[in-house]
What does this fold into?
Amino acid sequence: MKSELTINSNLLAINFCGEKVPLTEMRIAERYQNMIRNYDTDSFRKLMTSAEKRMRIIEPILKKYGVPSDFKYIPIIESAMSHEATSHRGARGYWQLMPATAKSLGLTVNGTVDDRKHLVKSTHAAGKYLKGLHRQLGSWTLVAAAYNAGPTHIQHRMNSQNKDDYFKLRLNAETTKYIYKILAVKEWFSNPKRSKEWGSGDVLDKMVQIREEKKLSELKPDSKQLARVATDS
It folds into this structure.
């Protein structure tokens, strides 16, 4: 009997920079749901409201460099859109650029001036950097991974595993989660209704039920064949 359970195709039509996210795979769907829930907080909703003005400044600058608008969410997950954010490794500003990287992109970083804390200047630098990563890696999803882990690390992983698909690469825990962070932030900004449905657990529950019913239906022919064998004997 054919299952009556269905999943609205819109719930699975999630992409990053036009690259489809394979949400029909359970491990991908589980990671995505966990991250959607992770950002379903009052503090994040307040951040969404306070960050909107700066994001309107970021988007056209990225567009100038041919970088998809989905990358405008990186300063949300990297620095909570704060110019004062500083990591223990020395990354600073909205885009959390390291000093050497910032300088190589034309920013001034010294004892008195730090352009990483300037929204417009640092976004121009980030646009250049992201565009360069895409020339090297060829996939915006891999570019996001490289922004987190570094292009050398990602290229090494791709070469050693002979894979060029982010969702098939074995990466460290932080980089594995990175794209889901961007996706979750993007979805809460652009499609809160769909995000709430994913967060409720209904989508994943249906996927599990559909998978179990499919397994059972595939076993039925074998059961019938065994029954015929038993009768014949």
Q: What stands out?
A: The radius of gyration is 22 Å. The chain has a mean pLDDT of 90. The longest helix spans residues 202-232.
